[in-house]
Design brief:
The structure holds two protein chains of two kinds.
Chain A: H1 3-8, H2 10-14, H3 20-32, H4 34-52, H5 60-75
Chain B: H1 15-24, H2 28-50, H3 53-69, H4 80-99, H5 135-147, H6 151-162, H7 167-174, H8 178-200, H9 205-211
Helix pairs in contact in B: 1-2, 2-3, 2-4, 3-4, 4-7, 5-8, 6-8, 7-8
Classes of the chains: A mainly alpha, B mainly alpha.
Amino acid sequence: MTCSEFLAMLDDLIDDEVTTRMRADLEDHLHGCEHCEVTLNTTRKTIQIYRSHEIYEMPASLRERLHTAIMKRCKKGC
Amino acid sequence: MATIQSIAGENEPHPDVALVERVRGGDVSAFDTLVRKYERQVFRIAQHITQNREDAEDVMQDAFLKAYEKLDQFQGNSKFYTWLVRIAVNESLMRLRRRRTGKMVSIDEDVETDEGSVPRDLADWAPDPEQNYTQAELGEILEKTIKGLPLGFKLVFELRDRQGMSTEETAKALNLSIPAVKSRLLRARLQLRERLSRYFKRKPASAAVGAEK
């Protein structure tokens, strides 16, 4: 397996959507390729960091204000 | 955050179905529950697209009001949240187009970019690299990094990886084909990885000492 072939399967590997056979091939490639191992680990870490940190968080005061405005309009029948 | 779409099993009705039915029957409080459930996600989508806090606030309000008004048109062949995202994306794009007259903004154009398609920065990262930054610094880095991505890439990443939507629902929400969602997700992940590498890669020993001040 080449690095490009590995890269083409990267998402499926991360999302756990590979067959047992394919996983074995991918792992085989990883054992001999430090670059792909770094790419895989740091891509996983990228996703994990983005999942566990809020970005564009709405402040609670803003949430309440917008929420009240929406519900007021809905009750009036929009 | 990653469990929005996976709470209900494939054969059980999604809990939103009952809420939508109650709203249709005139129960405004059920809509209140839906707003509280999804307002933060809708706000984030609007922020990704408009890049403007005021616009994102307006879009969030408009998207929910439109959803309420048009609830009769919701067919139930996608999830309520998927349908809501579609409304929010359209509202955001309309607002953006109004602001930047003449400049087309689109999520389905295939962005010609090689950036990130072949990983270039292959240095390994420090263990738990995010711990070298305060929460505020990290938030700034993450926002700055995702902001520079093409629109279609960041929306696919937001829905798939941050909000835990399936590939199929993401495709429906953004009106993209499944292969288009897949290719954008891979490129988004690789580009973000490449950009975060600048902050998180393992520093040579001498540089690390210097960085401590």
